[in-house]
Amino acid sequence: MTGSQTFGRRHVVQVSGTEGYAEEADELFKQYESIAFADAHRTVLHLIPTMPGRVLDIGSGTGRDAAWFAGRGHSVVAVEPTVAMRLPAMALHPSPRIDWLNDSLPDLALLLSRGETFDLVMLTAVWMHLDQAQRRRAMPNLASLVRARGTIIMKIRHGPVPPGRRMFEVSAEETINLARMQGLHPVLNVRTESSQERNRHAGVSWINLAFVKGKAP
C-alpha cells in the first residue's frame, strides 16, 4: 500500500500503482471514452472470442471495455480498485452482465477466493504499474484465472511517466519468460504507437502481448 485517497467522507486505502488516477478521473473518462474499443484494441481483435463466454477485465477503468464485451453477450468480471473510477464507471455502463469487483494485482485475493476461471483475461495499461517483485507474484495468479486454451491479453505502456503516476519500464522478454513458467504460450508480441496524438509526440508506445494457456492451437 502506498498512501490513500479520500472519496466523499470515506478514507480509502490507495492500491500501489493507482497513484494519480483518482485525481485525474474526470479527464481520464473523457480520454478513454473518446476512443472506441475497436480502435484501442485493433491489434488483438482477432484473438477475442466471438462466441459469448467469460471475460475478466483487470483494471477496468471507465468500463469502456467491459461494456463492449457485455454488449456482445459475454459475462464480464470487471476489477477496478480506484473508487473514483469504479463508481462512475458502474453508473456510465450499467449492465447485468458486468460484475464489478474492488480488487487489485498482484494478489487478486477477492477474485481468487471465488474459484472462477475465464475464457479471456484482459490487462490494458495495468502491467507496467507493478514493480518486478509484484509482477513475479502476479503472473501465477493470472495463470490460475484463465481456463485451459484460454487467452490472456496485455497492453503495456512504454515511454515517459506522467507526473504523479507509478510506472515501470517492462520488457516483452521478461513478461514472456514469466508467462512461459506458468504454462502460458506467447501468440502475439507487437509494438504499436499510441492512439492519442499528444502521447505519440511524447514518445509513448505500447507492447501488445497475448498468451494461450497450454499448447498453442
Report on the structure:
The chain has 217 residues and is of the alpha/beta class. The protein is built from 8 helices and 9 strands. Strands 5-4-3-6-7-9-8 form a 7-stranded mixed β-sheet, sandwiched between helices. A two-stranded antiparallel sheet has the order 1-2. The longest helix has 14 residues, at 132-145.
Keywords:
single chain; 217 residues; alpha/beta; seven-stranded mixed beta sheet; two-stranded antiparallel sheet; 8 helices; 9 strands; disordered N terminus
Number of separate helices: 8
Strand content: 25-35%
The largest sheet has its strands arranged as 5-4-3-6-7-9-8
Q: What order do the helices and strands follow?
A: EEHHEHEHEHEHEHEHE
Summarize the structure.
The chain has 8 helices and 9 strands. It has helices at 25-33, 37-40, 64-71, 83-92, 109-113, 132-145, 172-180, 197-202, and strands at residues 4-7, 10-13, 54-58, 75-79, 98-101, 118-124, 146-158, 184-193, 205-213.
How are the SSEs ordered, and which strands pair?
Layout: E1 4-7, E2 10-13, H1 25-33, H2 37-40, E3 54-58, H3 64-71, E4 75-79, H4 83-92, E5 98-101, H5 109-113, E6 118-124, H6 132-145, E7 146-158, H7 172-180, E8 184-193, H8 197-202, E9 205-213
Parallel strand pairs: 3-4, 3-6, 4-5, 6-7
Antiparallel strand pairs: 1-2, 7-9, 8-9
